[in-house]
């Protein structure tokens, strides 16, 4: 499966990435390549995951890396459009305790 990533800049230092498809060991590097430079250039990043069908531990690692990068500069990572299945995965791993999740996006 492939992943597609669309970037939208809303205002200064705030960018949204709309991710579609599966984020796994094969596609997570694409997400990392797009996301990490944005973490250095922005104070806030929103990841719209409403079209993500599947995410494995490699994808979770990308989220953690982005979170740490943004926290180091007092930035913010926000996940939106989380499916119940993905929310369960984030909850099991404890990421719901540290990463901001907005419902209804």
UniProtKB/TrEMBL annotation:
Q: Which domain of life is it from?
A: Bacteria
Q: Name one Pfam family in it.
A: STAS
Residue span(s) of domain STAS: 13-105
Name the CDD domains for this protein.
STAS_anti-anti-sigma_factors (cd07043)
| Key words of the record | Phosphoprotein
Reply yes or no: does the keyword Phosphoprotein apply.
Answer: yes
In its UniProt record, a GO molecular function of this protein is: anti-sigma factor antagonist activity
What does the protein in this record do?
Answer: Positive regulator of sigma-B activity. Non-phosphorylated RsbV binds to RsbW, preventing its association with sigma-B. When phosphorylated, releases RsbW, which is then free to complex with and inactivate sigma-B.
Q: Which family does it belong to?
A: Belongs to the anti-sigma-factor antagonist family.
PANTHER family membership: ANTI-SIGMA FACTOR ANTAGONIST TM_1081-RELATED-RELATED (PTHR33495), ANTI-SIGMA-B FACTOR ANTAGONIST (PTHR33495:SF9)
Q: What is this protein called?
A: Anti-sigma factor antagonist
Taxonomic lineage: Bacteria, Bacillati, Bacillota, Bacilli, Bacillales
